Amino acid sequence: QNDEYTLNSTVVQIFFFSSRRRHTRFLPVSWARRCVQETGIDPNTIDTMKEKRFSENVYEFFDDAASHLNIEKDLLNVYKLCNTTLKLNLPLVRDNKTIEFIPAYRSQHKQHLLPTKGGFRFSEDLDIRTSQALACYATFRCAIADVPFGGAGGGVKIDSRLYSENEIERIVRRYTIELYKKNFIGAVVDVPGPDFGTNSKYMSWVDDTIKFVSGHKDINSSAAVTGKGLNSGGLGLRAEASGYGVYYITAVSYTHLTLPTIYSVQISVVAVSLKKK
């Protein structure tokens, strides 16, 4: 409570409370309880449902949507499963000269359209199944928005608060080189962008590394990553884009969304990701 924070990114989750069902699926139950406690709602009215893995939620939603389609199960599995996943152990010489191996992942869900596109995150909760689920989500987002990319996702399993900026830079650059060596990054192959725990500075490190290893033979090497800083050719308002999206989606939802009669909207909770100053 004594620390100062700045808004880094926003993710909205609207909870619909009703006498029949309470939705607390996306955020951990402990978070939901804290949210409702701060608003004066009795936390005992919230279902103590088992917290699900992110990947379980993704595939559950897929199965639920697929159940309304007249498509063979074998074909649905083709759409559901991830095509390719790369697992890495990145060696890191820390500032105190000790050596660690940092797990990292990159998944390409579908390559029916290239390049694949998806986030690059730093999270201690990241694992291979989460990487694949993120890539799966990216495919569906691109398809719904009619963006001609396949889906990808991944990152580094790390709590960046425990590492210095120099150590983080070495991790990002090594991750980028390993992706390049395995043909998992490139303007026509796979284009990462900032995600949870990363920002434009990280993407500029990726851009600089790609230029170093391939810029002499690839005029489009800068197109291998999005979300770069302005000095690296990035776009203005990129960092604020997610927040604007949350605002407009929430505004439109409250204005036009028609809920089933079993729901009564009693409270809306907005979860924000904060970065310490």
Question: What strand order characterises the main sheet?
Answer: 2-3-5-4-6
Give the terminus-to-terminus CA distance: 13 Å
Helix content: 25-40%
Radius of gyration, taken over Cα atoms and rounded to an integer in Å:
20 Å
Mean pLDDT: 77
Number of helices: 7
Question: What does it look like?
Answer:
By secondary structure, the chain is an alpha/beta fold. Helix content is 36%, strand content 20%. The protein contains seven helices and seven strands. It has a five-stranded mixed sheet with strand order 2-3-5-4-6. A two-stranded antiparallel ribbon has the order 1-7. Helix 2 (54-66) packs across helix 4 and helix 5 (165-181) crosses helix 6. The model is unreliable at 1-28, 46-50, 261-267 and 271-277 (pLDDT under 50).
Brief rundown of the structure:
With 277 residues, the protein is of the alpha/beta class. The protein is built from seven helices and seven strands; from the N terminus they run E-H-H-H-E-E-E-H-E-H-E-H-H-E.
